[in-house]
Amino acid sequence: MAIPPELETERLVLRRFDPADAAFVLGLLNEPSFIENIGDRGVRTLDDARAYLEQGPLAMYRQHGFGLWCVQTRAGGQAVGMCGLLKRDNLPDVDLGYAFLPAYWGQGLALEAASATLRHAAQRFGLTRVIAVVSPGNSASIRVLEKLGMRYEGLYRMHDGEPEVRLYDIALTAR
């Protein structure tokens, strides 16, 4: 049974993850660019990927109604990345997160998915502010956040002993 979309854009479908997405998640989380820019989640096997999904996105859907969604192309249904909203204990507000397979970079897909996610955050979930954190050296992701209209607030340390990240925010209105 197909999972209904959470939201759709001109080129993309964003839908909830399910355990059947474990192979895709295993590949995405082990991309060198993911590990370098977002972090090593320690996901090395399909069982690890299923546990990541259960303890991450699936748990967040149950608790908050949102989470990271699987991003697929409308044309062929190919999974190309993830994008969504996260509520983390170590951040002051809900944050926008996204990651795409390198083969799909440079096509505006992150901007398209993130823009739709921010609209959805305001319209469906009533959020009035969303933040994003990004590694200082991730210039492509910084450009996406700036194109979304997010503004740089300053540096932020998510965990003691870890390097600081750049914190961005945007005020949302339901339209």
The biggest sheet, with number of strands, parallel, antiparallel or mixed sense and barrel status, is:
5 strands, antiparallel
Number of DSSP helical runs? 5
CATH superfamily: Gcn5-related N-acetyltransferase (GNAT)
Radius of gyration: 15 Å
Structural class by sheet pairing and helices: alpha+beta
Quick check: average pLDDT?
95
What is the CATH first-level class name? Answer: Alpha Beta
CATH names the topology as Aminopeptidase
Distance from first to last alpha carbon: 32 Å
The number of strands is: 8
Looking at the overall shape, the CATH architecture is 3-Layer(aba) Sandwich
Helix content: 25-40%
What number of domains? 1
Low-confidence parts lasting 5 or more residues at pLDDT below 50? none
Strand residue content? 25-35%
- Anisotropy-based shape: globular
Order of helices and strands: EEHHHEEEHEHEE
Strand order of the largest sheet: 1-2-3-4-5
